[in-house]
Amino acid sequence: MASAQVGDHELFYERTGAGEPLLLIMGMSGTHLSWGEPFLEALRRDFEVVVYDHRGIGKSSPAQAGYTITDLADDAAGLLDTLGWERPHVVGISMGGMVAQELALRHPDRVRTLTLGCTMAGGPSAALTSPEVLGRLQASWAGGDREAALRAAWEVNVSRAFAAEDDQFADFRRRAIEVPASLPAIMAQMQAIGGHDTAERLSGIPAPTLVIHGTDDEMLPYANAKTLAERIPNARLEILDGVGHLFFWEEPERSAALVREHALAEARA
């Protein structure tokens, strides 16, 4: 465990494993714990893995609302400087996938391979979270019942079949309570997501790109994955049938294998 001073912000990070450098960029309301141990353990077999908390959330320093996805991408580039990593493999999921897109566009020489999971390009053609799902989440936040909010977050982020697995929810709940995300921090991230739009710039991503998305994703419909794969040059698309938003939690070994195959193929080449 360590922290990096990036501009005015102190970013908490963890560095484990050995092998090719791999930066994981988490999504909205998530922290370094939100990846789940099975996924991380599978990646550590082949990679030196760094997970971190975005500004304003988790164990990183507080941040005022008003920052953008671009700001978070520059944070990631600053973290790479602290790590001494010139050109790691990068995986971004959900909001983290938006950050990863901007990182690859703004700092193309810093990204060796790119994996984008359960994310979107934004813009007018993006498929957004349904009003029903948003309403359910907002109602759970407004109610002030932490247990109800955690249960609602779990159920909209995984497939219905997986949501019924009590041991998985217990692990999700434990991690969320251990490093909680405040509602103002989540709102600041939602504001940043609202301004995200790379749709007309995706052709400028030079890094070999893998796009992963589950068909049962209620947070960001998998139609977004098709847009990303069509507009990023030579991108490869992997659709996971019957899997929800947190695909790496539902199928950690398979998800890690996809990342491993994509990154190490380029490394061997």
The tally of structural domains comes to: 1
What is the straight-line distance between the termini?
A: 33 Å
The count of strands amounts to 8
Major sheet attributes: 8 strands, mixed
Strand order of the largest sheet: 1-2-4-3-5-6-7-8
CATH topology title: Rossmann fold
Strand % is 15-25%
Radius of gyration: 17 Å
Instruction: Please estimate the helix content.
Output: 40-55%
Regarding quaternary structure, how should these chains be classified? single chain
Say which CATH homologous superfamily is assigned.
Alpha/Beta hydrolase fold, catalytic domain
What spatial form do the alpha-carbon principal axes imply? globular
- H/E series, N to C? EEEHEHEHEHHHHHEHEHH
Helical region count? Answer: 11
Give me the CATH architecture, please.
3-Layer(aba) Sandwich
Summed over residues and divided by their number, the pLDDT gives a mean of 97
Low-confidence stretches: none
Q: What's the level 1 CATH class?
A: Alpha Beta
Class computed from helices, strands and strand pairing = alpha/beta
